[in-house]
Every structure is written in structure tokens, then in C-alpha cells.
From TrEMBL, chain A:
It comes from Albidovulum denitrificans. Gene3D superfamilies: MetI-like. It is a multi-pass membrane protein. The chain crosses the membrane at residues 30-55, 85-105, 117-140, 160-183, 212-233, 267-288, 314-346, 366-394, 406-427, 439-456, 491-513, 546-569. This is Iron(III) transport system permease protein. GO terms for biological process: transmembrane transport. Its main location: membrane. Keywords: Cell inner membrane, Cell membrane, Membrane, Transmembrane, Transmembrane helix, Transport. InterPro entries: MetI-like, MetI-like_sf. GO terms for cellular component: plasma membrane. Belongs to the binding-protein-dependent transport system permease family. Pfam families: BPD_transp_1. Residues 81-280, 368-565 form the ABC transmembrane type-1 domain.
UniProtKB/TrEMBL annotation, chain B:
This is Iron(III) transport system ATP-binding protein. It comes from the Bacteria. Signal peptide: none annotated. It comes from Albidovulum denitrificans. One of its GO terms (cellular component) is ATP-binding cassette (ABC) transporter complex.
Amino acid sequence: MSNTHETPVATGLAERMPGWLFPRLSGLHIVALFIALLLTGLLLIPVAQVIFVAFQNPATGALTLQNFVDFFGTSLFRESFWNSFYVSAMSVVVATAIALPLAYITTRFHFSGSILIQSLGFIPLIMPPFVGAVAMQLIFGRNGTVNLLLGERFGINIPFMEGLNGVILVQSIHYFPFILINLSASLRNIDRSMEEAAQNLGSSGMRLFRKIVFPLAMPGYVAGAALVFIKVFDDLGTPLLLNVNNMLAPQAYLRISGVGISDPMGYVISVILVAFSILSLWASFLVMRGKDYATVQKGGGGMAKRDLKPAEKVAAYGVVIFILLVVLSPHIGLALLSFGTIWSFAPLPDAYTLQNYVTMWAGSKTFIVNTVLYAGIAATLDVILGTAIAYIVIRTKIFGRKGLDYLATAALAVPGVVLGIGYLRTFHAIDVPLIGKPLASWWVIIAMALMIRRLPYALRACMAALQQVSLALEEAAESLGATKRRTIQKVVVPLMTGGILAGFVTSFATAAVELSATIMLVSSNNDAPLAYGIYLFMQTPSGRGAGAALGIVAVIVVAIGTIASQIIIERDKKLKASGDVQ
Amino acid sequence: MKKAGITIKDLHLSFGPTEVLKGVNLDIKPGEFFAFLGPSGSGKSTLLRSIAGFGPRPKGSILIGGKDVVALDPWKRNVGMVFQSYALWPHMSVRDNVAFGLRERRIPAADIATKVQEGLELVGLAHLADRMPNQLSGGQQQRVALARTVVTEPEVLLLDEPLSNLDASLRVQMRRELLRLQRKLGLTTIFVTHDQEEANTTSDRMAVLDGGVIQQIGTPQELYDTPANLFVANFLGTANILEGKVETEGGQARFRTTTGDTLALPEGKTASGTNIVLRPQNITLQRDPGANALAGQVLHREFLGGQIRYLIKAGGAEIVVDQSHRAGRDWFEPGMAVHLLANTDSAVVL
Ligand SMILES: Nc1ncnc2c1ncn2[C@@H]1O[C@H](COP(=O)(O)OP(=O)(O)OP(=O)(O)O)[C@@H](O)[C@H]1O
Ligand SMILES: [Mg+2]
């Protein structure tokens, strides 16, 4: 009977009232509520604000579609829209051209260079694309290394980097690993027996590939391609650095920073960017759902690999090395630029020096300090929120817990530019007490933007970590007298440490080089982080060397972060390998 | 240590729309070693976990030492649970694992040290106190899990298939050790298993569950000898079941099978029901017909060492008969006509 156990008198009244009036709020309920409010304030409201303003008459405030009519009535915007679309689509095509042979060779043949492809295929991702853009110009530009050599030998000049071509080249070199990773994974997941069954029924060669392999690998490919498309569509830094302004993201930036935050065109562009983001996320969700072609059965194991004939082997190495050279060219170019004295109208720099690093260090201490501060705050908050949300979603029955997950993950569909514009619009009228500045131009808001942008990734890392912790480990603690809070503190969080740390490192490293949201929110050079610093350096020819040096610093930061998180995850797996049988 | 009895009254529990426990009533005496036995999915773990306070909140009541704990959080019940997976925390040493529950109880550090030492000595692992769980064998992990639970001096000890992760020989050794420990501490213990040998050898009494309902409660022997229904009869050991009805003629009760054979029931035995349960070892095979004997034919024979197991077609069913084996004695060959003499003293009519 319920009145036989002691009930503290204080809660007696509340317990007699209807449940909905006095919901029993545990500590976790309060945490959930706090997170919901935080995400609402820092994500939902700013984005809703942007969308709302896009449909609002700037003068009267009435709801209208006029802004969209104006947008599509302006030839510059129509052109920008078309350019963004064209560049994204072409980037997918070029990225596919790079990824397909690599994926095909590694999964279908016994090829000793496979390891090379697998490890080097990830390298582009550790460099922010805009950092490589300037270096690419020096290699592939009109007066860059390649064209100078081509001109000397064959008297031709190929416009690799002219206008939109430059954006396409830089982006596809940077983002092709998304396709490579997804495509290789789905090719590897095709069971040998699928292929053998087809062969057994008389299918072979190209026909087999077209009828069996291609359809089975399609979902993985589409998922990768959709990701590339949307990353390119949203990107601001690369077109800006290459001085290609007739695309959507740069237009949004230029309108807001040039005309001002009341100009509706920036908002219209934001709505279009968000719509495309959602569309492509949805598309990749659709193809992946229910078409999980992980067909590898017990005892199976990937497609049949065959040995290459000597001539084929030479050709394969040729293709792979050529692609890798192209893919690594931004890194090579950046390194040359950072160590070079003068590099202009010459295949290589005139001489080599460390002077750029000295200049860079003198001129960018603030940038580095700011970066550590912003990315540190963002990553710390990300793993705290990520852990809390993961616990609430996976281990509790709190009402609306799924909503927290969706809300945090929704940040994936919000391009940095849009978040930046949303913050400017929402927070410009709110003054920070004691600081005497609007919230929108206070440095803390940059850290908040970074936190929101990285939260989806940190959340996935924390969820994965929590799923590794068997429920019995928690129940054991509870049955020995530990309360929920103590159990989380003593058992859950310590066991999640590896995953949380990996999430922190990834968040930190990627937040450190993010440009699109930050560029909108930096209000003075004193508040600028590293990525913005590189952008500033790269604006003047004399600053390029130092900018490249700073870029190298960024690459190293991200590389160390990526490697560290891999090591942490591996070590963690080993520790967890035992202790809890099951 | 405190000994507490457990009384469960009309316990219902559902996972969403599916009802998994359908009105469980149970009375476990203080200090008793009690087993839950039943097929997979019968609700044993669910019932055990609801005593510890895990899973959805059930309807009905669970009294531990006379106090209803249904509304209490797991950490407020003084119930020790040993998990099938042991659930040792991989980030804590053996010592810290064992000390955990004591620390949660805010016991002075010096006392904790002695209690941990005693607990580890109890399971013979004092020398491994500083190891990490992943440096222990399965049997050692099991002992640590046990020590970790008993040092907190729970009122009841719950064990969910604690031996299922051990190999066969270790399982026999551990179950003896478990019993020795339980007797020494006098802890009220519930042991979940689907291995009847384990339940038979350890428990004072046991409950057989099926479909979320307790089928029968009693000592292992009672359950084997006088099953309350066909499920229990079939679940515990091998049972031959013949259909038919009880007839009384001149004060003598007989069971007439559907094929018309009759088996005289012992004098004074009043029985009703439509099935008779005969255990394989209570049937003798003979070549010649006799009173009270069923005619049949040998279908199959298996030599098991100490016994020979025959499968015989008789009385409208296939009957398993075990005969003890002695060197030099003749076997019955498949295809042979035989007669079965059933010892109806030990038969049960249901
Ligand atoms: N979390 C859950 N959600 C839904 N149904 C569940 C859940 N846990 C158990 N069940 C169902 O409840 C029933 C009883 O499960 P339980 O784990 O108690 O069985 P068991 O007797 O312990 O079986 P086993 O011998 O296999 O361990 C099963 O039908 C199972 O499918
Ligand atoms: Mg179970």
C-alpha cells in the first residue's frame, strides 16, 4: 500500500494534487528543461527569426512573398543561385571522378597501394578548404606552377582556377573523401555471394557491375554525394577567398555586412540555403533508410578481390599517384608558400625562409589565443550537453526527450552563414550588462555559435560512448545503494570518458578552423579567431606567406586532433573489451 | 546479518501493451535458498528485477521483511543483485568495486577496508584486490561480483543466472561454493536459472514459471514427484504422458488409456484427470505379457552407459523407458514386441 512507506511531509500536498499540476521534477528533468531552453534560444529562435524576416516586408513588417519575388527578379541573385547550384553539382561530379577509381581499386583488387589510398584519402578533410584555396591558385592558377610548365612545353594555358572552376576544383579536392568513405564502405559491404550468385546465373563483367554492384553500392554513394553537395552549397570561405562573389553564401555575407542587417536579401538567401540543406539531408536519409544493403553474411566478407596483372598494376599505381598528387596539392602549395620568400610568376618560390612563421607568430598571437578560448569553450560545452542529452535520450523516459535529440541534431541543417545572420538579427538589440555592447558583437556569441555548430557531432560521439556502457553496470551501482546522480557520476561518466574526450578533441579541432559563422560575428580584429586571421592575411599579397604559415598551424591542429581522437577511441575500446561479459 | 522474508502479492507487470507477469503470488521464508525455474521468456528475470526495483513499476505488492518496496527506487531497497554479466566496473580495481556499495553507505574508511578484506577472503580472492576486472578469469569475476554484493549486507540476495557464463565444470564448483556461502551467511537468496539440475541441487524450494504465471511452488523433490500440471511434469525431467480416463470398478481405480489399455492404480489412491504421467525409470520392460502390462514395440534404443534408453510405441504414444544396464544382460532390439510394466505407485494422474 502506498501509505506504508514514509513520505516526507513537505511533498504531501503536491502528491495529493493532480500529477500534471505538480510534475515530479527530478534533477534530470531540470537539466533537460535547461538544455531545451538553451537550444531554443541559441538555435531555434535565431533560425526562426531569419526565416520570419525573409517573409516580412522590411518596412511594414507584414507577411509577404515580395522578398522572394525581388530576389528572383534580380539578375545577380538569379545568377548566384544558378552558380551555387552549378558549382555544387559539378563538385559532386569531379569528387566522384576522384573517388570512384580509388574506391574501385581498393575494394576490387589486391592492391598494395590500398593502405596509401585509405590513409591519404582522409588528408584533405583535415584542412579547411579556404586555407588551401590560395595555395591552389599558386599551383593551378593562370600563372601558377602547372600552367607555367604547360605553357613552356606546349604553349597552352588551362583555366583550372578561373572563376567558378576554381571553386569547383578546391571544393571537390577537399570533399571527395565523403564519397570515397561512403562508397568504399558500401562496396565492402556487398557480400561475395551476391556477386557469385549473379555470376552463377550467367552475368559477368560490366553487366554484372551495372546490374548488381552498382545498385547495391548506390545508397552509400548517394549519401556521400548529398553531403558533398550541401557542404559546397553552404560554404562561404572558399568562394570568398577566391574572390568569387556571385554565389549564394557570399552574396548573403556581402548583403548583411555591406547593406546591413535589415536588408531582406540576406534572409531570403538563408531560407534557400536551409531549404537545400534539409532537402539533401532528407534525400540521403531516404536512400539510406530501408536500403541498408549491408549484405555481408556470416563467413562472407566483401566482394571477391582479384590480383592485378603487371600492366594493370602499373596503370593502377599511375592513376592513384596522379590523384594523390592533385589531392595533396593544396597542402604542398601551402607548405611551399609558408616557407617561400617570393612566389610569383614562377613554378616554385624563389627562395626558402622561416621569416613567414616569425611574422605570423608576431601578428597572430591574439588569433591563436582567441581560437583556443572559443574552441575550448565550444568543445567543453558540447561534450557536457552531449553527455546530458545522450543520457536523457537513451536512459530516461523523460517526456519529449527525442525532441532534444532532434533539436540538437537540427543544427546540421543550418549553414554557418545562416546561424551567423540569425545571431546578428536576434542579439543585436540585446545589450550585455556591464560590458556595454550588444550581445551580437560580444565575443562569447562566437563561442556559442561554434558550440551549436559542433553539437550534433559531439552528441553522436557521446551517444556512441553511452551505448558502450552496459545497462547492467548502472543497475549494479543502483542496487548497491548509489542514487541516479551518484551512478552517473561514479560509473556512467567515467566509463564514457574515452568517447567524451574523442568528441571534445574533434569538436575543438573543427571549431578551431570554422569560418562561415565566425566571419559574420567577428566585430573587431581583437576578437578574431585563427580562421578569420588566415582570411585577413590572405587579403594582401604581402601577407600570404604569413597566412600560409598560420594555415599550416591550422592543419597541424586539426591533424593532431583527428589522430588523438582516433587513438583515444582505440585505447578506450581495449579497456572496455572486458569487465562486463555479454 | 538480517534475514528477511519476501512476500509477493498479485504482482502484474507489463512492457507497454504486453503483460509479462500475470498475477504472481509468492512467499519466501527468511534464510531460504529459493530458485525461479522456467523456460526462456517465462518472466524469471523480469520478476527478479522487479524485486530489485528495475524495469517498469509493477502493480501489486512486494514485501521485503514486511515492508512494501514497490514504490522505492532501487538504491533505497537493501537488495543485493548479482548480474548474469557480473557487471564489474572496468574502470575500478577489484578493491574499489567491492568497496563501492560501502562507500555509498558512508561507512568510515577504516571499516570499509576491513569489510572489503573480509568480503574478498570470503570468496578466496584477497590476493587479487589490486587487479583490474579485465585481468580476472570468468570464475574470479563471478566471485568479485558476489563479494561486492554481500559486503553491503543486503536483506536478500538476487542472482540472475549467475553461472551461465562459466564452463560446465566450473559451474558445478561455483554452485557448491554459492550454496556454502549462502548457508554461512544465512542470506535469503533467489536464484534464477533455466537449468533444472542447478535448481534441484541448490534450492530449498523453487517456483516454476511459465508465461508469466507461477505454475507450482515446492521443494525440488515435490515438484518432480507430484507435478501440479502437465507443464511442470514435462519441464522437470522426462515424462511419459498417456491420455485416457480414470474408471472405478469394485472399489479398484484404474486408468484406461484412449487405446483401451488399462493400468491399475494403487489401492486407496483416489485420482481424477485425463492424463497419467509415468517417469521413464518407473517402467520395466519384459518379454511376456502380464497383468497391468501394456503391449508395445521397440522403436529405438540408446546406450547411455549406466542406463539404456528405449523408445517404445504403446498405449497410443511413444514412451521413453530407462532400464539400468548390467553387463551380460540382454537388450531389447528395435522391432521387438515388448510389454511395459508401469509402477503406478509413483504415477501421477492429472
Ligand atoms: N524491456 C523489455 N521490453 C519489452 N519486453 C520485454 C522486455 N524485457 C523482457 N521482455 C519480455 O518479457 C518476457 C519475459 O522476459 P524475461 O527476461 O523475464 O524472461 P526470462 O524468463 O528471464 O528468460 P531467459 O531465460 O531467456 O532469461 C519475454 O517475453 C520478453 O520478451
Ligand atoms: Mg533472464
